[in-house]
Structures are given as C-alpha cells and as structure tokens.
C-alpha cells in the first residue's frame, strides 16, 4: 500500500484507527479520545493543535493620565504693571474723548447740529471705554500690596469718565433737538439743564496722571 509522500510501509494498524473527531487528521483524540494526558503529550510531540499568544492590553492603571499644571499667580510687580498699563489705556481714551468733544462743540457753534451730535456720540463711546480701562486698573491694583491709594485714583478716574460719557450722550440729544426744534426750544432747555447738572457732578472727580498712579502702586 502506498503511504504518504510515496513511502511504502505497513499501515494496517493505522487502518484500525478511525478519525473519531472528524477533523480530517489522525491525532491524539483519535488514538485515545478519552485520555486527556495522551492527547496532551501527542499534540505536543506532533506539533498538532493550535497555539495562541497572549496579548497584554493596557489597563486603565497603565494608561498615562494628563496632569493639570497649576497656573502661577502673577506676583506683586506683575499686577502693578498690569494696573499701570490699564490706567494708561484709560488716559489715552479719556484724552481722545475730550478731543472728540471739542470737535463737537465747534460743529455746534457753527450750527451744524447733526455733525455735532455724531461727534458727541463718538465721544460718549470713547469715554465709556476709558471708564472700563480705569475700572480694570482698579481691579489689578486691588490685588497688589500697595493697593489703597492706587485703587482710589483708578476708581475716581473711572467715575469721572463715566460722567463724561453721560455728558457727551446728553449733548448729542441736545444737538439733535436743536436741529429739530430750534436752539431756544423747551426740549433743548431740558437737555441743557441735564448737561449742566452732570458737569457739576463731574467737578467732584479728577483723573490723576500716570506718574501719580505708578507712585501710588510703588513702581516707577
């Protein structure tokens, strides 16, 4: 009888072994299907059976976690510099608002009431920007060690700029009503009175220089 790969031999004994598990291979399960030890040894010797490789999957503990880096709080010098920078922006906007207001007055005196109103409205917006910058300067100064004098200066400048914005806004209404009703109308008189009241209140506040603010902060 012809064997595997053309080799001849007596395989009468193998003819008695049946492929009991139906896998197409005469192996340990066919020789001793009920003896696990025989199956194990035979499979190892013949290289039969399938091998599996264990794969290690990273667990939650193995996965690196992101660590939050604490934000470093600005020191006293940095806070003072931020306060001074904000105060300087407030001064720049305050000066710009004054210049725009002067142009509005010139238009008003030339009876160009609409142009005057537009300039007053612009001045009101810029003065409010100044107010916000001064408020920020006060907030920064409040975090410093030499805070009280600087905070007072910034808050006073903020209040003065807020009133300047209100004066400009009311002056814009005054200008528009002067165009609509005439300069001697009751409507114009009402706006004029409000402006005068606001100006009186504004006289109680002042805007200090940048150098004064820095001295109050303890920086040069």
From TrEMBL:
Coiled-coil intervals, chain numbering: 181-208
Residues that span the membrane, as ranges: none
PROSITE patterns according to UniProt: EF_HAND_1
Keywords, sorted A to Z: Coiled coil
Biased composition (Acidic residues): 12-32
Annotated spans, Disordered: 1-79, 84-103, 149-169
Superkingdom of this protein's organism: Archaea
Residues in the signal sequence: none
InterPro entries: EF_Hand_1_Ca_BS
Listed Polar residues bias regions: 53-79
UniProt-recorded name of the protein: Uncharacterized protein
The organism of origin for this protein: Halorientalis persicus
């Amino acid at each position: 009888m012809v064997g595997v790969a053309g080799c001849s031999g007596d395989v009468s004994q193998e003819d008695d072994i049946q492929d009991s598990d139906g896998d197409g291979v005469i192996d340990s399960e066919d020789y001793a299907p009920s003896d696990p030890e025989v199956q194990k040894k035979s499979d190892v010797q013949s290289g039969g059976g399938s091998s599996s490789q264990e794969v290690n999957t990273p667990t939650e503990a193995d996965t690196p976690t992101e660590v939050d880096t604490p934000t470093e709080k600005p020191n006293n010098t940095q806070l003072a510099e931020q306060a001074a920078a904000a105060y300087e922006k407030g001064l720049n906007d305050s000066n710009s608002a004054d210049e725009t207001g002067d142009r509005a007055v010139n238009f008003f005196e030339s009876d160009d009431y609409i142009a005057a109103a537009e300039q007053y409205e612009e001045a009101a917006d810029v003065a409010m920007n100044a107010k916000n910058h001064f408020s920020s300067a006060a907030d920064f100064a409040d975090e410093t060690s030499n805070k009280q004098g600087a905070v007072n200066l910034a808050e006073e400048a903020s209040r003065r700029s807020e009133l300047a914005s209100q004066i400009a806004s009311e002056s814009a209404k005054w200008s528009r009503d002067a165009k609509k009703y005439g300069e001697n109308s009751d409507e114009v008189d009402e706006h004029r009175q409000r402006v005068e009241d606001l100006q009186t209140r504004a006289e109680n506040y002042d805007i200090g220089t940048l150098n004064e603010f820095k001295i109050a902060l303890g920086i040069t």
